[in-house]
Write a structure and sequence with these properties.
Layout (H helix, E strand, L loop, with lengths): L2 E5 L8 E5 L9 E11 L1 H8 L8 E2 L3 E9 L11 E4 L9 E5 L4 E2 L6 H21 L7 E4 L5 H12 L3 E6 L2 H9 L4 E4 L5 H8 L5 E6 L6 H6 L1 E9 L13 H5 L4 E3 L3 H4 L3 H16 L7 E6 L3 H9 L6 E5 L1
Helix pairs in contact: 2-3, 2-9
């Protein structure tokens, strides 16, 4: 019987349990997929703690790569043996999952299963942030918080490839070195430096066209203060907690700024947009312009250790679980 990581109550890593789960035969339009590798993301922490509440009990996880074991009635786009991946599956922390074919994409040759699991959610997030939310290109200056993290390490490489000047915040000199290797032009040690002040120094007062912020409550004021008039504040996460006390007049006072709170789901809601996003990601990785770093691997049964490492900001690049 396949095993899965189940959350029966919201809380810390102590609520994670490793349990037998019955195998589910695929229904119409569904695939049964054997997991090869599973991605770990901050949204999983939000679900575990109840910040983004889910009906209890539930199997944790959103990202995985694996092999199709069985197809349901009416499935025409996939067959048994296909290598597939998803960034929006419900319950990816499992040895096996049955889910709608509409959320899966085929993994092309040249992309390993571990690489796919490490990049689908984070890489497609980077893609919509840089290509759709704000179309980054030559002449733009961007600030990316957590530049050496899972999304950051992909997005900064991609932004560099697109011709932007990239400023990234990091927590240590070690992470700063990694960020610079990934194409970050200027690093800021957020624990010891004033981010907005350093941005102004780096840009000679011009500031940034766009700021990408997945940290939230502890960083958003510095993010707003790092933008030029008519700049865009993209808040796509809240690893330090939800933003509190936000007043829209803050945008006016800083130069008629724009603000958005996007999610991957809305940018990949149709088969057309999902395939477009995934194919663009696969293409830029295959070209070598963006490299996927797997910073840590944990056995699925050791998921609590993986979460503690992620929450403790001990990780760089992507973290994956191996069933």
């Amino acid at each position: 019987m396949p095993k899965a990581v189940v959350v029966s109550a919201f809380g810390g890593t102590e609520v994670l349990s490793f349990k037998d789960m019955p195998s589910k035969k695929p229904g119409a339009g569904e695939l049964r997929v054997r997991a090869i590798a599973i991605g770990v993301n901050f949204i999983d922490v939000y679900h575990r703690t109840g910040l983004y509440p889910q009906p209890l009990p539930f199997v944790l996880g959103k990202e995985m790569a694996g092999v199709v074991e069985e197809v349901g009635e009416g499935v025409t786009g996939f067959r048994k043996g296909d290598r597939v991946a998803s960034a929006t599956v419900s319950g990816s922390y499992a040895e096996e999952i049955t889910a709608p074919e509409s959320i899966f994409v085929k993994v092309p040759d040249g992309i390993s299963d571990e690489m796919a699991a490490a990049m689908m959610l984070k890489g497609m997030t980077a893609r919509y942030l840089l290509r759709k939310t704000f179309a980054v290109g030559p002449g733009h200056t961007i600030l990316f918080h957590a530049a050496s993290g899972g999304v950051g390490s992909i997005a900064t490489q991609w932004a560099h490839h697109l011709g932007a000047t990239v400023i990234g915040t990091v927590g240590s000199e070690e992470k700063a070195k990694l960020a610079r290797q990934n194409g970050v032009d200027h690093t800021i040690l957020y624990r010891s430096e004033d981010v907005a002040k350093r941005v102004a120094e780096i840009t000679k007062g011009a500031k940034c066209d766009v700021v990408y912020d997945s940290v939230g409550n502890t960083t958003y004021i510095g993010s707003l203060d790092s933008l030029k008039p008519l700049g865009m504040f993209v808040l796509f996460g809240q690893s330090s907690g939800p933003v509190k006390g936000f007043d829209p007049s803050m945008l006016a006072a800083r130069g008629s700024l724009f603000m958005t709170r996007p999610t991957l789901f809305n940018y990949t809601a149709t088969r057309e947009t999902l395939d477009e996003t995934a194919n663009d990601l696969f293409g830029v990785v295959a070209s070598g312009k963006v490299k996927i770093e797997i910073g840590a691997r944990f056995a699925l049964k050791d998921v609590a250790d993986a979460h503690r490492a992620l929450e403790g900001r001990e990780t760089t690049g992507s973290t994956i679980l191996i069933p």
